[in-house]
Structures are given as structure tokens and as C-alpha cells.
Amino acid sequence: MEEIKPLFGNFKGISTGIGVQWAIMILVILIAWLLTRNLNKVPDKKQSAVEIVVEAINNLVKENMGESYKVFIPFVGTLAIFILLMNFAGLVGATVPTEDISVTAGLAVITFFLIQATAIKRNGLVKYFTAFGKPMPFLLPINILERFTTPLSLCLRLFGNMTAGGVVLGLVYKGMGHFAFVVPVPLHAFFDVFDGGLQMIVFVMLTMINIKITAEE
């Protein structure tokens, strides 16, 4: 794993990974703006490709959460694309943001508050808090602990898997020296593309499942 270095000299508050994360945010916003300009009733090739992606996200949310959770389609789609691009950053030689635990922790915290807010909105404060005592009151401490272990699990799973890949690739580059431009190609295909895509799917699926389960307890 590449050592996390400050982005601006001695200013310790921003790491390179966070800087790359911000760059990806800007890229996603720019691409979304470019792809959604001048939409037509009869789609061209560009619009057709966008509609395929949107329809896939729509089906993903409806099949796993239900029609009543359609409001989460924009969030789930943005989360999936955002995590995927961050995990793929290593393919262009950039620092992978998800190898920085502050990045994965930020995503997990957002997910945690969204889960709790959805449960409160759908059930009200009284039912939200009484749900901690179900199915038996003595399970209250365990249920409370479970709520807080969810974001911790999301954070550490994404961080741990991406960091492991970064460590392996770093060792290969270091060990192969001048010949490292050949060997890492299949490794990048596995750790960046396959594992990066898989971790995105896991994070997004667990997010959807936890939103639905917590709201319906």
C-alpha cells in the first residue's frame, strides 16, 4: 500500500487519496451534466447507453428494496458509480481513495445516517426507538450495538479489501524493479477491476439491505 502523503505540503488535513476522491467527484458531476444535456424523445447512441445504465440501477433497487423505495435510485446509482471509479483509480496510476480509511469511513457514516433517517421517517420516533427492544427487551444492548457495527463493517470491509490489493501490487512493483511493467497487468485486472467491482457491489447491496431491514423492523 502506498504511504498516505499530505496533498499540500505540510498541511496534514488532506491526503492524496482524499484529493483524488474530490477529483472523481468533479468528474462524476461533469460527466453527468454532459450526458444529460439535450435529451431527446428518440435517443441517440449516447443517450441509449445512459438509459441502459439508469434502467439497470432502477431494476437493482426495485428488485432488492421494492417499489416503495424508488426514492433511493439516485443515491444507489451515484454511490455505485462513485465507489467504482475510486476503486478503478489505480488503473491510471492514481492513489486509490478507498485505501484511505477516512474515505471509506465517510461513506459508511453517510450510509449510517441515511439508514436511521429512513427508519425514523417511515416509522416515527416512537416506533424507531421501541424497535431496539424487539423481539425481547433484554436484547436492547445487542440491537443498539448492531446499529453501530453496520457502518463499521462497511468501512472496514471496503478499506481492508482494497488495501490488501494495494499492498500486493506495491510489493510486486518493488520486487520486479524495471520489469514491473509486464507482471502487474493481470494483477491490476484482478485487484482493481474484479475485486474493485466486487467490493462496490458488496457495499451497495449491504446498504440497500440495511436500509430496507431497519425501516421495516
Automatic annotation (TrEMBL):
Transmembrane segments: 20-36, 71-95, 101-120, 193-211
One Pfam family matching this protein: ATP-synt_A
Location relative to the cell: Cell membrane; Membrane
Keywords noted in UniProt: ATP synthesis, Cell membrane, CF(0), Hydrogen ion transport, Ion transport, Membrane, Transmembrane, Transmembrane helix, Transport
Membrane-topology annotation of the record: Multi-pass membrane protein
Keyword Ion transport applies: yes
Keyword Transferase: no
Domain of life where this protein originates: Bacteria
HAMAP family cross-referenced by the UniProt entry: ATP_synth_a_bact (MF_01393)
Family: Belongs to the ATPase A chain family.
Record's function text: Key component of the proton channel; it plays a direct role in the translocation of protons across the membrane.
Protein name (database record): ATP synthase subunit a
Source organism per UniProt: Clostridium neuense
